[in-house]
């Protein structure tokens, strides 16, 4: 089969690889019909994730058809169309029993990280019963693909960790795919005012289309002053950081109201300044996290009912065999006006 293979920092190649085989009785083999590229994949290619070995097939999101199952698999059968969760779940370890699936002792984020991933024609999925979600007939495949990772991340790590409530004023810093996912998910909780902060004018316009009430561009506006005007000097109840750089984390600290929540979603590659000398007296709660995907079944029902349309995040489409071109486009997201790319198998 063909797959996108990591060959060290800055090196990747679409090349021939052996077909995956069942190893454990709880495994399934899935033929990939749609996959996508995540910002985390770009971090890997930059060499920021040293736990990824050369020769690894990248990717941790996908939709596919089950080709084979191990003898212990009970809920998934050959021929099922499934969502591949970015998090592999054994279901029985110490962390899984606490629903901290991202820390599963025999799973967690391993696809495209510690085992071969989904940017391939076929992929092996460990603990298939817990790590695959059967896709009901009639559900849009592109919408379902967003449930592999990005929408659960926005909901769980941004909105739920941030304790968004009806009547809140919330600010999302970063209107990339994760920020827009958090924006969509936040509307389940009816905040009174949603503010999107970004330097990309195109993404800010998209955020307005997705439901943002106010947009702020730090390149031409003073964020703190604008927030003070909007909130009568109080600040926001929830600040959701969706970029992962020191400057955006500082914005969260600068605009949060007393008693507020800062929910960090962005992947940080370097240290940030934590101003506890200002935050302690304001009763601020700071949360972090890696997605657990325990919200995926509920989000799937919301997609089925038409309450949420995550396929709106998709801006570009390529064949899976064009994945190297797709990476170049995704790596220049601002210039190319990219949000999410869908790669479809031929």
Automatic annotation (TrEMBL):
Alphabetized PROSITE patterns for the sequence: ADH_ZINC
Alcohol dehydrogenase-like C-terminal domain residues are: 177-297
Q: By its UniProt entry, which Pfam families does this protein fall under?
A: ADH_N, ADH_zinc_N
State if 4Fe-4S is listed as a keyword.
no
Cofactor(s) recorded in Swiss-Prot or TrEMBL: Zn(2+)
The residues that cross the membrane are none
Keywords, in A-Z order: Metal-binding, Oxidoreductase, Zinc
Where does the Alcohol dehydrogenase-like N-terminal domain start and stop, copy by copy?
A: 26-136
Q: Which InterPro entries match?
A: ADH-like_C, ADH-like_N, ADH_Zn_CS, GroES-like_sf, NAD(P)-bd_dom_sf
Work out whether the entry's keyword set contains GTP-binding.
no
Q: What family does this belong to?
A: Belongs to the zinc-containing alcohol dehydrogenase family.
Spell out the protein name for this chain: Zinc-dependent alcohol dehydrogenase family protein
Taxonomic lineage is:
Bacteria, Pseudomonadati, Pseudomonadota, Gammaproteobacteria, Enterobacterales
């Amino acid at each position: 089969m063909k797959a996108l293979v990591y060959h060290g920092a800055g090196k990747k190649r679409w090349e021939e690889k052996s077909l995956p085989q069942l190893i454990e009785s709880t495994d399934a083999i899935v033929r990939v019909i749609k996959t996508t590229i995540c910002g985390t994949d770009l971090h890997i290619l930059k060499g920021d994730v040293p736990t990824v070995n050369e020769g690894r097939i990248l990717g941790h999101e996908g939709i596919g058809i089950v080709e084979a199952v191990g003898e212990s698999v009970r809920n998934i059968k050959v021929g099922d169309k499934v969502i591949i969760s970015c998090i592999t779940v054994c279901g029985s370890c110490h962390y899984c029993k606490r629903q901290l699936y991202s820390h599963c002792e025999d799973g967690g984020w391993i696809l495209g990280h510690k085992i071969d991933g989904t940017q391939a024609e076929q992929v092996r999925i460990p603990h298939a019963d817990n790590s695959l979600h059967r896709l009901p007939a009639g559900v849009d495949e592109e919408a379902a693909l967003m449930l592999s990772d990005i929408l659960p991340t926005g909901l769980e790590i941004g909105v739920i960790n941030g304790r968004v409530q009806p009547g809140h004023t919330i600010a999302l810093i970063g209107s990339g795919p994760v920020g827009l996912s958090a924006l969509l998910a936040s509307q389940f909780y009816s905040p009174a005012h949603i503010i999107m902060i970004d330097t990309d004018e195109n993404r800010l316009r998209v955020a307005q289309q997705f439901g943002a009430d106010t947009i702020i561009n730090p390149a031409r506006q003073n964020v703190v002053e604008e927030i003070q005007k909007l909130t009568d000097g109080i600040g926001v109840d929830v600040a959701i950081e969706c970029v992962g750089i020191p400057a955006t984390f500082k914005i969260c600290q600068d605009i949060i109201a007393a008693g507020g929540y800062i929910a960090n979603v962005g992947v940080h590659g370097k240290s940030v300044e934590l101003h506890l000398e200002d935050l302690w007296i304001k009763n601020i709660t700071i949360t972090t996290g890696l997605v657990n995907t325990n919200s995926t079944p509920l989000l799937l029902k919301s997609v089925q009912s038409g309450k949420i349309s995550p396929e709106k995040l998709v801006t570009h489409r390529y064949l899976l065999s064009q994945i190297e071109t797709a990476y170049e486009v995704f790596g220049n997201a601002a210039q190319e006006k990219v949000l999410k790319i869908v790669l479809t198998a031929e």
